[in-house]
Amino acid sequence: MYRRIKGTKDILPGEIYQWQYVEKIISERLERNNYQEIRTPLFEETELFTRGIGSDTDVVSKEMYTFLDKGNTSLTLRPELTAPVVRAFIQNNLSQISPVSKLYYFGSLFRQERPQKGRLRQFTQFGFEIIGSEHPEADAEVIQTVYDIYKELGINDLSVRINSIGSLNSRNHYLKILKSALKPHFNDFCNTCQERIEKNILRLFDCKAESCQRILDRHAPSILDHLDTEDAQHFEEVKSLLDAAYVPYEVDNKLVRGLDYYTRTTFEITSSLLGAQDAICGGGRYDHLIEDLGGVPTPAVGVASGMERLLMILNESQAIPEKEINLIYMAVIGNNARQVAFNIATTLRSRGLRVELDFLRRSLKAQMRDAGKKQARWVVIIGEDEIHKDKILLKNMTTGEQKEIQLSQAADQIEATIT
Question: pTM of the prediction?
Answer without folding.
Answer: 0.88
